[in-house]
Amino acid sequence: MGLPSANFHQNPGLGQVILNEGQGILDQLGIAKFRNIFHTVGEGLIYVNIKGKVLEVNSALIKILDIPKDKILGKSVTSLVRKFASKNEIQRLLEITSKAIAGYSVSPFETNFKNKILEISVRFDKKSGRLTGIFRDITARKLAENELTASEKKYRLLFDNADVLVSLYNKDGICQLMNRKTAALFGGEPGDFIGKSFIELHPSA
Fold first, then answer.
1. How many Å is the maximal CA-CA distance in the chain?
2. What is the mean pLDDT of residues 124-149?
3. Angstrom distance (rounded) from CA 26 to CA 34
4. How far, in Å, CA of 93 to CA of 129, rounded?
5. Rounded to an integer, what distance in angstroms lies between the CA atom of residue 176 and that of residue 51?
6. What angle do CA 1, 120, 30 make, to 5 degrees?
7. Within 13 A of 10's CA, how many CA atoms are on the CB side?
8. What percent of the chain stands above pLDDT 90?
9. Cα–Cα distance between 165 and 45 in angstroms, integer?
10. What separation, in Å, do the N-terminal and C-terminal C-alpha atoms of the chain show?
């Protein structure tokens, strides 16, 4: 949430506060080019003043939240947050925001909204006293991570319960993986032997 003034067209000093980049952005890109970047970037952006009033939002945020711009702009950011966050999540988001205002680096916040998984980051521009909220739709990434985790668990289960002796050693002869059947042959659990050398496990080899 570094915030610009509420109006792109009436504030010639806009670039001075946005994203805490200073006058350099305005000098290099100009207000028109910066406005174009603001509205075409893939991440949802929301600018809020220290009193919690929403000053500006970009097109990506409207698409991510699927909420009309006139229902957000000029309103209290608290009323917006209540649309996608539970009581506990609101409290957590307030804590994250307070830390950002205090100058601490804060981790992104995740929440579920309209069958989407959103990642929200908060930045504070001390000079302007305004906040930037960055919204990312990470649904696809999370689904891929969950599928990978499920796949790993599936194959790990097959590996652990295979009715054959299976163990894996690296090029230095150190055991990296061992299934339960092999570990039982050595009189223990797989974790007892991972990290040991082939020679240590097979002294007579």
1. 84
2. 90
3. 7
4. 18
5. 56
6. 40
7. 4
8. 47
9. 55
10. 65
